[in-house]
Design a protein that fits this description.
The chain is α+β, with helices and mostly antiparallel strands. The protein folds into four domains: about 50 residues, no CATH class; about 120 residues, 2-Layer Sandwich (Nucleotidyltransferase, domain 5), CATH 3.30.420; about 60 residues, no CATH class; about 80 residues. The protein has twelve helices and ten strands. An eight-stranded mixed sheet has the order 3-2-1-4-5-10-7-6. A two-stranded antiparallel ribbon has the order 8-9. Helix 7 links the parallel strand 4 and strand 5.
Amino acid sequence: MIVARLLDPRSKYATACRLDPRTTAISLGAELNLGNVTENELYEAMDWLLAPQTALEKRLSQRHLTDGDLVLYDVSSIWFEGRTCPLARYGHSRDGKRHRLPLVFGLLCDQAGRPIAVEAFPGNTGDPATVASQITQLRQRFGLSRVALVGDRGMLTEARIQKDLKPADIDWISALRKPAIRKLTDQGLVSPEWFDDRHLATIECKEWYLGERLIVCRNPFFAEECQRKREDLLQATEQRLRVVTEAIQRPKRAYRGKERIQRRVDKVLDKHRMRKHFLVTIADDSLTWQRRDENIRKEAALDGIYLIRTSLPATQISDEKTV
């Protein structure tokens, strides 16, 4: 199952079909002399693995984690066919399967990316809500007194840092969200002009991030992608607005009424989240709009810029390694 998962990841049923001599599509079954393989045997192997999970994770932590290490943590989801799983509940589906019940799972890895522990959560669990149980694992199960948790900005949020990490004396490496970056820019603490000749800078903000190190980075390739995507969305929004205008101006069954037009325009502006970039004027029988060039320019100035935040001092890990 491990080899099949590495070489050709599929469902248990599909893997069983490809291992069975009668329906084989790969040589793995013959190479390992497996004979007839059923999907139930593969499910039973997963059940067998579940029993020693706690002991296995403990051994993995002893082998790969020591005090002071970085621990990488991330959350993903899968969707479930059927109605019998107690953890499968309607929630955010990363796969776009809105009509399937998802499951959420969190994975802890060492700083080299080796998996240490995995935990399943109900499908309606938000990413930040899974952090507390990981702290419990690191402290109580694995016996680590000093550790730094590395996670994305959607999970290691400001609220989670204040509520869970700081009280537990857990260090962290994460990132700031766009509104926080814009706030620092408005205060003059971050300047896009810095990156004319470099792609990394360190700043301090004792007012909001006391005792933290903020590392400002710029990815020029991501900046180009942001610019391209914004222009595509602006043009798509304008095209939809032109459709509304044509409906207002057509000679028969014209689309009229200020409130009625407003509702349709709201849907257009919210479709691609472009409301902030357009100035719209609506009357009972007309619609005009123009781009807010100043807003677009301000947003474009931050393209490709992101801020890494960490409680770890530079003497313990450099800016480059932190990023």
